[in-house]
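Nucleolar protein 6 structure dump, as promised
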Amino acid sequence: MGPAPVGAQLPGAAGDPEMMESTLEGTVKEEKKEFSKKHGAAGSPAEGLLQPVKLSRAELYKEPTSEELNRLRETESLFHSSLLRLQVEELLKEVKLSEKKKERIDAFLRNVNQKIMRVPSTPETELTDQAWLPAGVRVPLHQVPYTVKGCFRFLPPAQVTVVGSYLLGTSIRPDINVDVALTMPKEILQDKDGLNQRYFRKRALYLAHLAHHLAQDPLFGSVRFSYTNGCHLKPLLLLRPHGKDEHLVTVRLHPCPPPDFFRPCRLLPSKNNVRSAWYQGPSPPGHGSPEPPTPHYNTWVLQDTALRSHVQFLSTVLGSASGLKDGVALLKVWLRQRELDKGLGGFSGFLVSMLVAFLVSTRKIHTTMSGYQVLRSVLQFLATTDLTVNGISLCFSSDPSLPALADFHQSFPVVFLDSSGRLNLCADVTASTYHQVQHEARLSMALLDSKADDGFQLLLMTPKPMIRAFDHVLHLFPLSRLQAACHRLKLWPELQDHGGDYVSAVLGPLTTLLEQGLGSRLHLLAHSRPPVSEWDISQDPPKHKDAGALTLGLLLRPEGLTSVLELGPEADQPEAADFRQFWGSRSELRRFQDGAIREAVVWEASSLSQKRLIPHQVVTHLLALHADIPETCVRYMGGHLDALIQGLKEASNTKGRMVVSQGGEMVMVPNVEAILEDFAILGEGLVRAVEARSERWTV
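C-alpha cells r here:
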C-alpha cells in the first residue's frame, strides 16, 4: 500500500470522535498501570504523601556497613545523643552557602576583577600633593602629621587574588564577606616606604582613586570605606552588587605590597619604623634617648605582606578535609554568639582557622575528624593553654636568625606566630580578651561534658553579650577622656606605635590598673570596643572619639566581694610607699588587734547591698587618681536589682506583719487581722472542696 499521502486522514483520527476518545482512555489506563508499578498504588487515601520504603527481608536485616558502624560509634562516644548530632548537622546546613549563591558570587567577582583592571592610571605626584583627587572622594585615613616624604601614582594592580574564608569554604552566613587582595605594582612603592606611615598613606590613596571610579559604575549598588578589623591605619573598600543581590555578598578590597618587598628584618618587634622627630616634633637638644620600638605598626605592615601566603598555607592544611572546615564554621558561630570576634583585638575567625591548622600540624587534630570533634579539641586547647605565658608557633625552622618566642612576649601580651616565625597573629589581642576566650572555653567544655539536654542551645544558639556574661558592667564615655588618660599615664611610645589611636594605647594599662585594684574581688575583667561603622567615600573617616563607649565587664568572686578592708604592708616595709602611691588619699595607717601598724584602705559600706558595690568605689577612685577620668564619665551598672529585691521582701512581709512605732523605733509586729483573714479564706476553700466531693458520690 505504501505510506499515506500528506494530508490524508487515518481511520479513527480527528474525523472520528468516538475512536479518538477510546484511544485516549486506553492510553490513560496504560499510563496509570505503569505509574502504579513504579510508585505504588495511585488513588489511595495517602496519595500525594510520602510512602514508607518497602524493603525485602534481606535488605531489612542486612549487616550495617563500616561507615554506618563508624557513624553510630562516633555518635555514642562524642555526641552523647543522636539529637545533638542532628542539631549540629542542621546548623551547618543553615550557615553554609548554597551552590547557587556561590555561582552568583563568582560571577560578581569576575566582573569586579574586570572593573578594577580598567581603572585608569595617574601621573606621579608628591604624597602631600593630593589636588588630583576628585571632590567627591576623601582619603580614608587621618593624615597626622600631614607632612611626609615620598611620591605616589596609581597603576592597576599587578595581581588580583581572592583570599580569606570564602576561598577556603569556611565562610558562614548571614554576612558573607569576600576578601580580595590587590597587589600594588613595585613602581608605586619605594624602599623606605615602611617608615613614618608612608606605605599606609599610599595604600589609602590607592583605595581613594579606586573608590572614585568604581562608584560611577552601575554594577555596584554600594561603594563605601571601612577599617580592617578596626585598625584605623588600614582602611579597605567595600563593594556590594546592585539590585536584588545587594545583600548577597560584600567584597572587601585590601591593597598589599608585592611579596618580599619589605625586608623582614626591618619589621621585627624590636625595631622602630615611626621616628619620634617626625611624629612628636623635634625634641629639645640634649634628649638623645633611643627610639622606642613599634611592634604593632610593624605587624600591620607584615600582615599585608602575608595575605597570600596565609591563604595558601590554610588551603594546604584544610584541603579537602570537610570535617576541619565544619569545625572552623562551628567555632566561628561560637565566637559570634559571645561577641568575641568584634573590632580591633577580637579573636577573629582567621585566628581560629590558624589555630586549627596549628593543632593539625602538632597532630592534636586529625584530618579525618568530624566538625564536632574539631570544635571540642579547639575548646579543650583554649581552656587549658595560656598563650599569655607560653606562646605557640607554626614555624618549626631552626634558623638562628629568627627571633625567639621570648622576644615576642616582651612586646605582645598574647603570642601565636605564623609559619614565617616573624609575624604574631595575636598582636592585637589583649590579655583580657584572651582570658575571656579561655573562660568561655572552660564553660563550654563543662557544658558539653555535662550531657545537658539543652547543651546545643546554650553552646551555639544562645547569644551571650557582655551584659549577660558579667556581674558588673561599666561604660567609659566620652572616649576623648582616654586621650587625657594617655597623657596622665605618659603613654607616648604607645601612641606613637598605634598611630595616635589613644583608645588602643591606653586599653592595656587601664585594665592592668583595675585588675590590680580589684585584687581578690575580681575573677575576670574583659573589655568590648564597638566596631567602627562603614562610611561614605565622600566623608572623612570617623575619629576615635566617635566610636561610642568603651565597655568593661567585671566577673566577681563571691568570697572577697563584701570585704571593706584593703590590707597593705606594714608601715616600715619598702612596699608601703608603693601602696600609698597606688591608693592615694584613701590609704591610711591603722593599728590592728595583733599590734601591727599597717597601711590600709577602708571603704564606706554598711549594708550588704552597699558592700556588693564596693567595686564601684574602687573603679571610680583609681580612674580619677591615675587616669584623670572623673566619676561623671563612668556609667556603672551594678546593683540595679537590689531595689527590686528589697521591694519583694517588703511586699512579702506586709501581709503577715506590720510596722509600728515603739519608743521612737520602728518595730515589726504580727498583723493579726491579716492572718485571721487568710485563715477564713482557707476555711472557705476547704468547705467548698468537701461539698464538691460529697456531691460526686450522691446517688
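The chain has 25 helices and 19 strands.
lmk if u need the other ones
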